[in-house]
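Data card: per-record layout.
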Amino acid sequence: MARKRRGNPVDGWLVIDKPAGMTSTQVVGAVRRLLNAAKAGHAGTLDPLATGVLPIALGRATKTIPHLALRPKVYRFTLRWGESRTTDDAEGAVTATSDLRPDKAAILVALPRFTGAITQVPPDYSAVKVRGERAYDLAREGEVLELTARTVTVYRFELLSMPDRDHAEFLVECGSGTYMRGLARDLARVLGTVGHVAALRRLQVGPFAETGAISLDKLRDLGHIPPPITPVETVLDDIPALAVTGAEANRLRSGQSIALLRRADLERLEGLEDGAELCVMADGRAVALAKRDGATVRPVRLLNQAQEGR
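The structure for this 310-residue chain is written out next.
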């Protein structure tokens, strides 16, 4: 007999305004307990120091986490000039100091070097895997790391303010895998000094912005009031949708492709490029992520299996 899954079958996305001092995993655990949710995960790890938008996937939404993780993100961070730290943020030990403080003109000249497709070496204290272990675990053990540079995309890097000579505030819109700590470290170096992230807040992940986020305290206070959970399909709004019949949906759920050979069927594929990723919908719900292969639609990831026993 199959073991019964504990918790309620909650499906959708809940956007938490993550507080400082908690890990992303701790926030997921808190949400899961508060909602008694059977399954939960998060998209886009935030460091304990960071605050802001942390999308929590519940139930079927966990299957769409890889898609949301690839969507652009927006951050605001404060760079502290004159101190480098082991973690590249305020939580680490000071490793070097400098009396040089860049002026506004120098910063504005340097910023274009960090937009577009750039190479970035992840911080030593990061979740990057080295020989099967997390870099931060090896760094805590005192191992000297030489992490490989990788290409990331920065769409926007703006100077917002310079509240005093030691600090500058920036806004960044970027693609997946971009470290704000790396940007702060490298910008300071280019300007002839050292620096680290003193404060960090994520403002947006894909369709989720801070205006729609709820704090853990407010979530606790809701009591029996339903939390602001958005549909699973919210993160798939950038993928072309294809409506299918109930019978076709059942074939996809069983892992089989569907052939759309009749003229009326082919009209549903009009405007969808061959090889394009599709969000297959039935009765207003996402059934699967799929790809078009000529007149055939092939399931890639199932999102709504009637036989899940929920």
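Known properties of this structure: Helices lie at 24-35, 65-69, 104-110, 135-140, 180-190, 216-221, 246-253, 263-268. The mean pLDDT is 88.

See the next section for split statistics.
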